[in-house]
Each structure stands twice: as structure tokens, then as C-alpha cells.
Description:
Elements: H1 10-19, H2 25-36, H3 50-56, E1 64-68, E2 71-75, E3 79-81, E4 96-99, H4 102-116, E5 120-125, H5 135-147, E6 156-160, H6 164-171, E7 178-182, H7 188-194, H8 203-217, E8 221-227, H9 235-245, E9 251-256, H10 271-280, E10 285-287, H11 301-312
Parallel strand pairs: 2-5, 5-6, 6-7, 7-8, 8-9, 9-10
Antiparallel strand pairs: 1-2, 3-4
Helix pairs in contact: 1-2, 4-5, 6-8
Amino acid sequence: MKENIFGKDINACEALMTELGEAKYRGKQLYQWLYQKRCENFSEMTNFSSALREKLDGQYIEAVLMHYEHGASLCVSTQVGCNMGCKFCASTRGGKIRDLTAGEILAQIYLAEKDENLRISNVVIMGIGEPLENYDAVIKFIRIANTGFGIGQRKISLSTCGIIPGIEALAEENLQINLAISLHSVFAERRKQLMPIANRYDFEPLMEACRAYFKKTGRRITYEYALIDGYNDRDEDITGLIKLLKGSQNHLNLIGLNEVQETPYKESPRLSYILGVLEKNGVNVTMRRKMGRDIDAACGQLRKKRYKDKVSL
């Protein structure tokens, strides 16, 4: 997602450079390139390093369109990159560059509808980035998507790694959206190994926040669980899931892992078996339909592929 920097004054140019981790004087140089030298291409800014020119030349995000019997669903991103560091996810490679504005998130719907000549009926805020780390923009996006684009709140789902203050704030927003929690293990230490953010927001406080959210909103929570061979698909993991969710109104979404080349994690061969055991033990569970793997359209893989293609040009 590119930002148009033409029109920035010298103070804004200096602020941009500082935000990018560069010296303030670079802002004055940028200002001179834009207006005094009438430069139209970053590659012409010869006193900038190639790394700085790359920073200025825009970043990539991804939005993935999925077709279901009930209509078209769009998975949108909320940040350029991600700081959560989940070990099995491509979105976090390279960290977070910046938050997206509400307008930039809305633009993903607008462009998808325009390019595909269809109406988006469902939105999942599960693309690149942690939505609750970009809280204000995401809430603004949800309200405009609802009142402006006419997408029902109950057709909007937000997925979080478990940012407890964000979950608590969301409970007070009087929204009817669907909340999903990236769970991936019921054992605190194993979850911390997979998801570094769990070192800040531990398992039991997270579960308490989820119970409070359900009590406040009456909206069931979906727990997302990507099954990893030999890591979270063991018999003791199944027992832990049953203990956590048996008889609960909340929902478990089993996911076949989208394998990332740079990690050792592999998809579990026990998906169907685990689904059957959980169903027999009274857990409200489904298995997520596999979509987009043939075009690397999952967990930041499109963005990663686009960068790789650009480098190889």
C-alpha cells in the first residue's frame, strides 16, 4: 500500500524520515528532490541509499477473496507486516512496517468489488497484522464497513493473537461482530513457543478475558487451532481441548497448517481423527475449508511471494 508523499511540506518530510528511522536532515533532501529538482522517481534520488529508496517506494499488503455458497468473503489486512512473531506464519517475516489507516483497510473492499464486479458480503479481519494493535483504525473500519458499505456486523469477523486490553476494549464497543482467538495450544508454555505475544498475555488471563467478553456481549468466541504435526496434535492436546471447550457455547475451528518454507512446522496428518474425537466429546468444532494454497494466498504468503518476485526481477 503506497502513500502519496507529493504534497508533504518540509516538516512532514522530516517527520516521515524520522518515522523510517533515518536522520532528520534526509527530510530536507527529500523535499528538495520533490519540489526543487522535480524528481518523479525514487530511483533518481542518488544521495539516498538503495535501502532508503526501497523504504520510500511503497510496501505490499494482501487481501484475499474467497467464494462460498453464501457469498463472497474478503480477508483484509490491518498492518503492513506484523510484530507478533508467530513461528508458523509468513506474515511476521520482516516485522511490522506500519499500521494501515481505516481508509486503506476499506480500500481493500472497494478494490476487490471493483476488480471482480461483485459485492463483498462477509469480511474477515484475518490478513496481515494484529488488528487490536491498530485498534482505533480497525474500529473505524468496522463501523464504516457496516454503515457505509452495508456489511452486517455479524458478517464481520476479527481475529487476534490474544491482546487482552484490546479484547476488553472491544467488549465495550457494543458491536455484534465475531471474535476469533488464535489459540494453537492449550498449554501455556507450548503456546509461548509458537506465539511470542503469549509471553506478555498469558493463557489463563486470556481465557478470563474471553469469558468476560462472552458474558458482556453474548457473542460466542471462535478459537482457531492450526494443527501442527507432533506439536499440538498429541493425545494430551486433544484432552486439553475437550477440557477447555466441552459443553461450551464457544466454537473451535481446526485449521490445516499453511506450511512456511523457512519453518520446520508441518501439517498434522491427524486432522480428521481429531475432528471426530472432539465431536464425539461434545466440542462445538468445525474444520476450516482449505482455500488459496495453490496461489500461496494464506498467512502473508502472497506478500512474501511478491517481494521475492520483485527481488528476482
